[in-house]
Design a protein that fits this description.
single chain, Metallo-beta-lactamase, Chain A, alpha/beta
Length: 301
């Protein structure tokens, strides 16, 4: 039985054999810490540590979106090789952050192309140089602008870029045959977001990006999110994009009002809630507050 079959049937197996040792179950899950789940039409997701990975297994080859870290991408590669035995055609990065691109290096020599938005490549090169990790990178050899499509698989893959948001290089990757769109970190589902101002992020435009995504895709589109407060909720629908958009709008409104009221940067960043935002949780509320403050003060809005 392969691991996918095991995970699918695990709850039944564990419940049906009362004498099964719990320490063996624990050992198995420790040795296989990742989760893989098929979504629609040969497109699935992989989660372990870092931003959610999507993969598409066609009749001849495999496409992957994002790569987490080297150890995790090796787990993905091994699992897909065992499951399908097909070669890897293309890896697409939604943006440059290490939890989405550090694992690129594991695909070196086994994949034909790595692709990303042109700004994502610039950001990845800059970050690697700053961290002295240039030797640990597999950079994109294909870059694109606002729209692009890759046609060397059974089904075309489309990418869309609507301007700065989480960074200035976030793109949406769409598998039209399955109607699945990987949003990268354009959606932190019910989890406080990181706004990377050093990489050209814009809270104001992020709101517009999410609006354009809702207009582009239909009600049946299944979205993959880079992160979620609940690890099992890294997929969702347009309502989740709208909720993310609402969080960002409330964040920007709140910070703007606090600045007009004479509050200092330190006072605003210490806020423990944002009026109108009830579902977002976890650590890091200060990250968005700080970014929004800097954006407002610098006259971007």
């Amino acid at each position: 039985m392969n691991r996918r079959s095991f995970v699918r049937n695990a709850s039944f197996t564990f419940g049906a054999i009362p004498l099964l040792r719990k320490d063996w179950i624990t050992k198995f899950m420790q040795e296989n810490p990742y989760k893989m789940r098929l979504l629609r039409n040969d497109v699935g997701i992989f989660t372990e540590k870092g931003g959610t990975i999507a993969y598409y297994v066609s009749k001849k080859n495999i496409a992957v979106v994002d790569a987490e870290f080297p150890e995790q991408s090796k787990h993905l590669i091994d699992a897909l090789r065992k499951d399908s035995g097909k070669p890897f055609e293309i890896l697409i990065n939604t943006h440059h952050h290490m939890d989405h691109t550090a694992g690129n290096i594991s695909f070196k020599g086994i994949i034909n192309h790595v692709a990303a938005h042109s700004n994502s490549l610039i950001n990845q090169q800059r970050a690697a140089k700053e961290q002295n990790k240039e030797d640990q990178q597999l950079y994109p050899d294909l870059t694109y602008g606002d729209t692009w499509k890759y046609e060397k698989l059974k089904e075309k893959i489309y990418t869309y870029y609507f301007g700065p948001a989480h960074t200035n290089g976030d793109s949406i990757i769409h598998f039209p045959h399955a109607n699945i769109a990987h949003m990268g970190d354009l959606v932190f589902n019910r989890r406080w977001a990181f706004v990377d101002r050093a990489a050209g992020a814009s809270v104001k435009n992020w709101i517009l990006v999410l609006d354009k995504a809702q207009q582009l895709f239909d009600k049946d589109t299944l979205f993959v999110f880079g992160h979620a407060f609940d690890p099992d909720k890294v997929t969702g629908y347009k309502d989740d994009l709208k909720a993310m958009q609402g969080y960002l709008s409330n964040l920007l409104d709140y910070v703007t009002q606090q600045i007009k009221a004479g509050k200092t940067r330190e006072e605003i960043i210490k806020s423990t809630f944002i009026p109108g935002v009830t579902e977002w949780q976890g650590d890091g509320i200060d990250r968005g507050l700080q970014a929004a403050y800097d954006e407002v003060i610098q006259g971007i809005i």
